[in-house]
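Below is our example:
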Amino acid sequence: MTDFTEIPILDLSTLINGGDTKKLAQEFRHAYGTIGFSYVINHGIEQSLIDSVFDVSKKFHDQGLEKKMCFQIDKTHRGYIPINTSTDVNTDLAKVTKPNQSASYMIMKEDISINQEIYLSGPNRWPDVLGFKDVCESYVSAMSELGRKLMGLALQSIGVEDSSLLKSFEDPTTWLRLLHYPPQPQGAKKDLYGSAPHKDFGCLTLLTQDDVGGLQVMTPAGNWVDAPRIPGSFVVNVGDMLRRLSNGILLSTPHRVINQSGRERYSCPFFFDPHVNTIIEPIKGTGNPTFEPLLFADFLRGELEASYKAHQVK
């Protein structure tokens, strides 16, 4: 990993339009092999759809707490996550003793019912907010297609010709998180975060955010680089599972959110991961394996039970 002072921008035009992606794959390899983050532009997702997601998110969060609590998150990890109920206890990047200063609503892949053989399977919980279900389902569908294309590009970037791994993303694990960060109090202590320093645990994160700011990415020297909104872009980063799949070639980079703007902040990260029953291990052709195989579902269970009160209830 090399030091950096700004986040690169990748133009996805050739990926979206079916062109020659050789040059783009080289740019992807450089960005995610040295930094682990980039902005992506010309990604094919309509701005009107993105705007609609922010609209239904704000409508939900503007409701009274009593109404939102009717949809409090359950063991399928769907629903409302109130402020002060999730803490990044597994991070080794900071001493985290206080819960994240954000509230959110979680939508995952829609299942008709709970399948005991598939961790986190189940139906979503849809609040009575005009357009909420239709908008979120349309967004998840569009973002899943983009995620599949980016995973193909990621494999191309590390020289993997065997595309069999992509079958694990045909029925993916997806997470759309509608986040609301209230302004942090003036004079708040340094260990109070909107989102504490952490690495994402999945494969790809595609973030759209408002213009309030607060997202920061950590450099190898321990400095923090701002990642403000660039209109028409997503901030995309690699998570721990893609780092393992790539045998460490692609990097999972620490980041955090501190909302010192004095304004409310909204963001909508979309997490794109393989099916929960996928074995995560270095892909053949990436060198001698430096990571032991693990079952994605087992890893997720450990992460969620450590960080969320809803998963700690027996």
